[in-house]
Write a structure and sequence with these properties.
This protein is an alpha+beta fold. It contains three helices and six strands; from the N terminus they run H-H-E-E-H-E-E-E-E. A hairpin with a 5-residue loop joins strand 1 and strand 2. The longest helix has 21 residues.
């Protein structure tokens, strides 16, 4: 697969993942996120995949709007780093939010399938 094809595939997977978060589609989240993935929430809290899925299952995390902005994808053989600006509205860890965030997400290729292995997000000031 060429670099352009991989980037196009990752762009589609990013859209699919964001739609899954917005629709609380736990099955798609489960498929796209590696079982040992690590997350760092914008408040600094480290969490696991199972904790993320439970937050959506229980309603602690739910978004009414996810608006993606600037996205950059860098490929390193079987690993990709995605930087993405998101405007989020909804409930995040039981707190109402309406703000911008910069996420960095790491994807790794496992037996021909891209999976998220790490995510970190920080709030950013509106410009």
């Amino acid at each position: 697969m060429t670099t352009m094809e991989s980037k196009a595939q990752l762009q589609e997977l990013e859209k699919k993942l964001l739609n899954a978060f917005g629709n609380k589609d736990l099955q798609t989240m489960d498929e796209l996120i590696h079982d040992q993935a690590l997350f760092v929430y914008p408040n600094g809290l480290p969490v696991t995949k199972s904790m993320v899925l439970e937050n959506y299952r229980s309603g602690k995390s739910a978004f009414s709007a996810i608006v993606p902005g600037e996205e950059m994808i860098h490929l390193f053989d079987d690993t990709a780093v995605v930087s993405l600006h998101l405007e989020l509205k909804g409930n995040y860890q039981e707190q109402v939010i309406s703000a911008g965030f910069r996420y960095i997400r790491v994807w790794k290729l496992f037996q021909g399938q891209w999976k998220v292995i790490a995510v970190s997000g920080v709030p950013i000031a509106k410009q």
